[in-house]
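Worked example 2:
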Amino acid sequence: MKIRHACLDDLAELAQIEMKSYPKEEGASLESIEQRLRYFPDCFWILEEEGEIKAFVNGMRTNEPDLLDVMYEDSRIHNNEGQWQMIFSVVTAPAYRNRGYARRVLEDMIVNTKERGCQGIVLTCKEHLIQYYSSFGFINEGLSSSLHGDATWYQMRLRF
């Protein structure tokens, strides 16, 4: 089992996992994932075993302290020197859920992001996941302004 950054060759598999993991209005499209891979492949962390992607985390870097909906759609605003690592997706392939894969890739991503000199990591999640992300040290900052997918989101922040 290894954790690595993504490349364009991973596109189809990443898009398939994303599609199976989120409602259509919340998940990233194939085109969106492709754009992200072109602009910030080093902000994709993949847990792979025997050539198969089992879980991944992706997002972008920015100096904006809050996760904004425009970030999901416009990869060009990624700033490789940004102080905040945003997380868009924490995903495990359906056949491999409840085995700790997402935890392992997220822990690696946190260490890697800290080593890169970021101030911290920001994500939004649904209420039932607040406790999960709190277990990594993320602090719930309350309701997010996000309207992504017409859902209610809470913003979580991990400061280094």
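The chain has a mean pLDDT of 96. The longest strand covers residues 52-58.
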